[in-house]
Write a structure and sequence with these properties.
Blueprint (H helix, E strand, L loop, with lengths): L4 E6 L6 H14 L4 E5 L5 H11 L8 H25 L3 E5 L2 H11 L4 H11 L7 E6 L2 H8 L12 H17 L4 E5 L4 H19 L6
Parallel strand pairs: 1-3, 1-4, 2-3, 4-5
Length: about 210
């Protein structure tokens, strides 16, 4: 089905995903690699409306299953409308979060059955699997320092125990599927992390025979 490469970035809020995604895209552009960036939830007109519902702090009565299904609905729209066509056109597709966030937040964080979430993740993406997933990992004290006085959304506002379960969830997911994941210490210097990401990407390109000028 796909001719491009699908790269996802994961981690708790404040882990440095946005910074590293920007650096990675800069490297792709300098290497003249066609690429496109999407975010989750969102990335489409429908998905952005769902995003507003999910992150609105006023929606305190949202049930955990409703939350899960809304994330999956946004992801299905994004996969069908944008990600799969971009991959079929040969682009490197970068996604700021994908279904591993659902496993970490709604599975490990909320306690929803993991096997159910895994089946739903597959259906919601037409069984699409990222080629490579980077997890930017920081501890909770570092997260607190980085977020500072930022106005938090509904998920970011969850307590420390929830955030700890989510972080542990990401690490467990990576441990269970080591061939796809690279866990990076997000507390290091930005340029060191960026260089490591680029090296892992080039290694993936060699394995997949995807031509990139180094």
């Amino acid at each position: 089905m796909k001719n491009g490469l699908f790269i996802t970035f994961e981690g708790i809020d404040g882990s440095g995903k946005t910074t590293q995604i920007a650096a990675f895209i800069d490297c792709l552009n300098r290497a003249s690699v066609s690429n496109v960036l999407f975010r989750e939830p969102g990335g489409t007109a429908i998905g952005e409306k769902i995003r507003d519902i999910l992150l609105d702090k006023k929606n305190t009565r949202m049930s955990t299953i409703a939350e899960l299904l809304l994330y999956s609905a946004s992801r299905h729209q994004l996969s069908r409308e944008s990600i799969i066509p971009a991959l079929e056109s040969g682009k490197v597709v970068i996604c700021d979060r994908f279904y591993d966030s659902t496993t970490a937040y709604q599975g490990f964080g909320r306690g929803i059955d993991l096997s159910f979430i895994q089946r739903l993740n597959s259906v919601a993406t037409d069984w699409l699997v990222p080629d490579l997933t980077f997890i930017l990992d920081i501890d909770l004290s570092e997260r607190t320092n980085r977020i500072g006085a930022k106005e938090l959304d509904r998920l970011e506002s969850e307590d420390a125990d929830f955030q700890r379960r989510v972080r542990d969830g990401f690490l467990q997911i990576a441990k269970d599927t080591p061939d796809r994941f690279v866990v990076l210490n997000g507390s290091r210097a930005v340029d060191i992390i960026s260089a490591e990401i680029w090296t892992h990407f080039l290694n993936l390109c060699k394995r997949k025979e995807y031509a990139v000028s180094e």
